[in-house]
Input
Amino acid sequence: MVTEATARLRGHLVEKYEFLLLRLSARLGSREQARDALQDAYVKLSHTEARDEVRHPTAYLFRMAMNLASNARRRDRRLLGFDEVAALLDIPDEQPDPAAVIEARSELSRIKTAMADMSPRRREICEAAWVDGVSTQEIADRHGLAQRTVQLELQQAAKALQQVLDGAAIIPLRRREDGVS
Output
């Protein structure tokens, strides 16, 4: 049930609509936002009841519309704009395409064949360094070799693999504090 005070406020809003629209437009910088704020104020007055008589109804309605416009701006800032949504939807697909998968499998097959053709010592050194991440000094100690010999074996293995893969440099030598591995 709408109280008499609420009915009078709604009537005052209708009566002073153009005046309030001009003031709100100037304050908000947009006639459209001012219309929305006044519409929201009218709807709010339709659903709530004023308990007491308002002494200055125009000022009261202006302040109510300003608060509603402020709430709407805050709410709209939380929403993403069209450009932001478009940027989010324009995420590139990280999955490799079928051609890239086939090419990678082919390269892996050539690497496995080249590794199988290496001497057992060179293959063990490569696997220890590149697969297990063992330092060149540890590999040298395991095999009873000089660290420089291990480094040369790794360089020669890398060159052989690069030649197998048509010269593509895919196996960079790692730099470590204790030397190149």
Remarks:
- The chain has nine helices and two strands.
- The beta strands are 175-176, 179-180.
- The mean pLDDT is 86.
- The CA atoms of residues 23 and 62 lie 8 Å apart.
